[in-house]
């Protein structure tokens, strides 16, 4: 199964030498340890760079753009991995090795399963 | 009211589920197979008669159904070969997994079901429903929630298990402590369901009580030196010790004050008291809910007569219990009864009024029945009779209903006398 590991930590700027020095080797170590499970993943730039976009009403409605992340919280989404795992136990065990887990928390979520609605997807 | 045959089928079904999960390695398939087997039993047994060993019969049929299900669902690759191989009737039984969880299928499965990625209350509910064969209303009553909320919680948990890829597997030794609290909750819930039936012809279900005590004992042996399982076993033993005196030969309930204390099981009491003392030593006086409930049962056990009961001490213990379990209605009810015994019926009624103000529940038939008894003690017999009648609205075990109707009749007769 494919799981997203969403990394919530204090807002980080990985371009800061201090931060890069502290965290990048730890993430690199996770990456090499979990290599066979990591399907994808990225670190995100600081939430100060985020822009939130929403369309009012329905498609084609007024576009409202605002500065900042969707939710202002103490811990922010600072990165994610896509992990291929046998089951949730394995995903949880891997998540516990992501450095963000001891800097914040990791939300483990399976990616949506479309197998039940496959026919709708292909008939279009 | 559930028919006795259906109840046998359901409870035996729950028991064979544990073994079948081990064979199939998949809880979902095992559950479906057991369900189909129980449906077959319900169709065939009324015609053919109940087989000599219902469990063996259900096991054979459920295994066959599971084989069909595995083939039909076409589990992919290696898993399918493994599963069908395991289910091959000629193949030997799979070896008992050796591991920390011990050799008891049922206890092992309860640990498996108490998966840490599920919410704590969901773990307990699922195990009671799936592994112990309790009906949704019984699970709801054991866990002090409404039937609708419980049904929703169970559905949500099953969805998460399926969609989030939670696989049931036997936990390693290091994983056991994290699951222990939920496992204690399951055993306590199982005992409660047996001890306080919601309806039916009898007040209690001896099989469920016995099974809960058996599992609690196994749990204490599996993880020795831990206060939780010791306190739980102490609570169950101290409660169970009174069982022989709780019911008269006609199946009617006998109130605590009227029980023949000579019929209490002294060996169970001694063991319970000893376990409680050991458990309390380990936590250095910091008491958890099981310890406090066991301590309340111990005060009763130590009283040579009903009159000699130390009710102020029981009130004090209930106060402590409520301080760690503020939302527990049974604790508040127990406290109101103890207050009435210690300080008089008007004080007990005031405690009930306070509970009603804090957590009103007109459908709580026990609360209504207790109020009726306390009203009668203050001499307000007409009010007591009317209140007791209100407590009969919902489902009740037959002997409990008969008992309450007798009380109503007594009070109404006394009222009519000039």
TrEMBL record, chain A:
<comment type="similarity">
    <text>Belongs to the YciI family.</text>
</comment>
<protein>
    <submittedName>
        <fullName>Uncharacterized conserved protein</fullName>
    </submittedName>
</protein>
<dbReference type="InterPro" id="IPR011008">
    <property type="entry name" value="Dimeric_a/b-barrel"/>
</dbReference>
<dbReference type="InterPro" id="IPR005545">
    <property type="entry name" value="YCII"/>
</dbReference>
<dbReference type="Pfam" id="PF03795">
    <property type="entry name" value="YCII"/>
</dbReference>
<feature type="domain" description="YCII-related">
    <location>
        <begin position="1"/>
        <end position="115"/>
    </location>
</feature>
Automatic annotation (TrEMBL), chain B:
<protein>
    <submittedName>
        <fullName>RNA polymerase sigma-70 factor, ECF subfamily</fullName>
    </submittedName>
</protein>
<dbReference type="GO" id="GO:0006352">
    <property type="term" value="P:DNA-templated transcription initiation"/>
</dbReference>
<dbReference type="InterPro" id="IPR046531">
    <property type="entry name" value="DUF6596"/>
</dbReference>
<keyword id="KW-0804">Transcription</keyword>
<dbReference type="Pfam" id="PF04542">
    <property type="entry name" value="Sigma70_r2"/>
</dbReference>
<dbReference type="InterPro" id="IPR013324">
    <property type="entry name" value="RNA_pol_sigma_r3/r4-like"/>
</dbReference>
<keyword id="KW-0731">Sigma factor</keyword>
<feature type="domain" description="RNA polymerase sigma factor 70 region 4 type 2">
    <location>
        <begin position="110"/>
        <end position="161"/>
    </location>
</feature>
<dbReference type="GO" id="GO:0016987">
    <property type="term" value="F:sigma factor activity"/>
</dbReference>
<comment type="similarity">
    <text>Belongs to the sigma-70 factor family. ECF subfamily.</text>
</comment>
<dbReference type="InterPro" id="IPR013325">
    <property type="entry name" value="RNA_pol_sigma_r2"/>
</dbReference>
<dbReference type="Pfam" id="PF08281">
    <property type="entry name" value="Sigma70_r4_2"/>
</dbReference>
<keyword id="KW-0805">Transcription regulation</keyword>
<feature type="domain" description="DUF6596">
    <location>
        <begin position="179"/>
        <end position="279"/>
    </location>
</feature>
<dbReference type="GO" id="GO:0003677">
    <property type="term" value="F:DNA binding"/>
</dbReference>
<dbReference type="InterPro" id="IPR036388">
    <property type="entry name" value="WH-like_DNA-bd_sf"/>
</dbReference>
<dbReference type="InterPro" id="IPR007627">
    <property type="entry name" value="RNA_pol_sigma70_r2"/>
</dbReference>
<feature type="domain" description="RNA polymerase sigma-70 region 2">
    <location>
        <begin position="14"/>
        <end position="74"/>
    </location>
</feature>
<dbReference type="InterPro" id="IPR013249">
    <property type="entry name" value="RNA_pol_sigma70_r4_t2"/>
</dbReference>
<dbReference type="Pfam" id="PF20239">
    <property type="entry name" value="DUF6596"/>
</dbReference>
């Amino acid at each position: 199964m494919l799981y997203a590991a969403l990394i919530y930590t204090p807002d980080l700027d990985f371009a800061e030498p201090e931060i890069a020095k502290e965290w990048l080797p730890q993430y690199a170590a996770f990456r090499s340890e979990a290599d066979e499970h990591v399907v994808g993943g990225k670190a995100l730039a600081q939430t100060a760079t985020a822009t939130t976009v929403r369309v009012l009403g329905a498609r084609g409605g007024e576009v409202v753009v605002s500065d900042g992340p969707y939710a202002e919280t103490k811990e922010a989404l600072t990165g994610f991995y896509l992990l291929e795992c046998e089951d949730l136990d394995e995903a949880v065990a891997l998540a516990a090795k992501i450095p963000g887990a001891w800097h914040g928390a990791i939300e483990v979520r399976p990616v949506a399963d479309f197998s039940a609605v496959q026919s709708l997807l292909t008939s279009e | 009211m559930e028919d006795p045959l259906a109840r046998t089928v359901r409870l035996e079904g729950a028991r064979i589920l544990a073994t079948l999960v081990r064979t199939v390695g998949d809880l979902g398939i095992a559950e479906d197979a057991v369900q189909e087997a129980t449906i077959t039993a319900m169709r065939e047994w009324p015609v053919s008669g109940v087989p000599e060993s219902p469990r063996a019969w259900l096991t054979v049929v459920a295994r066959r159904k599971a084989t069909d299900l595995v083939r039909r669902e076409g589990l992919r690759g290696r898993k399918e070969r493994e599963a069908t191989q395991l289910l091959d009737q000629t193949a030997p039984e799979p070896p008992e997994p050796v591991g920390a969880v011990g050799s008891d299928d049922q206890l092992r499965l309860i640990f498996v079901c108490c998966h840490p990625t599920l919410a704590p209350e969901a773990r307990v509910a699922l195990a009671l429903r799936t592994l112990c064969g309790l009906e949704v209303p019984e699970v709801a009553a054991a866990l002090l929630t409404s039937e609708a909320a419980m049904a929703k919680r169970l559905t949500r948990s099953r969805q998460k298990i399926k969609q989030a890829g939670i696989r049931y597997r036997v936990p390693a030794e290091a994983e056991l402590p994290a699951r222990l609290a939920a496992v204690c909750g399951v055993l306590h819930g199982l005992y409660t369901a047996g001890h306080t039936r919601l309806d039916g012809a009898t007040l209690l279900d001896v099989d469920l009580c016995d099974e809960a005590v058996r599992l609690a004992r196994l749990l204490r042996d599996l993880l020795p030196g831990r206060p939780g399982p010791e306190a739980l076993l102490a609570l169950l033993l101290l409660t169970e010790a009174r069982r022989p005196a709780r019911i008269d030969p006609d199946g009617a309930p006998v109130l605590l004050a009227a029980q023949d204390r000579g019929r209490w099981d002294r060996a169970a009491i001694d063991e319970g008291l000893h376990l409680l003392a050991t458990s309390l030593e380990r936590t250095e006086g910091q008491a958890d809910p099981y310890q406090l409930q066991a301590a309340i049962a111990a005060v009763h056990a130590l009283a040579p007569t009903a009159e000699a009961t130390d009710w102020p001490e029981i009130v004090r213990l209930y106060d402590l219990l409520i301080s760690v379990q503020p939302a527990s209605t049974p604790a508040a009810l127990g406290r109101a009864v103890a207050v009435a015994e210690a300080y008089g019926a008007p004080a007990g009624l005031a405690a009930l009024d306070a509970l009603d103000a804090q957590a009103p529940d007109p459908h709580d038939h026990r609360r209504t029945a207790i109020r009726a008894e306390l009203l009668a003690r203050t001499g307000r017999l007409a009010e007591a009779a009317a209140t007791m009648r209100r407590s009969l609205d919902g489902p009740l075990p037959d002997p409990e209903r008969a008992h309450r109707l007798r009380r109503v009749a007594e009070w109404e007769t006394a009222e009519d006398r000039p």
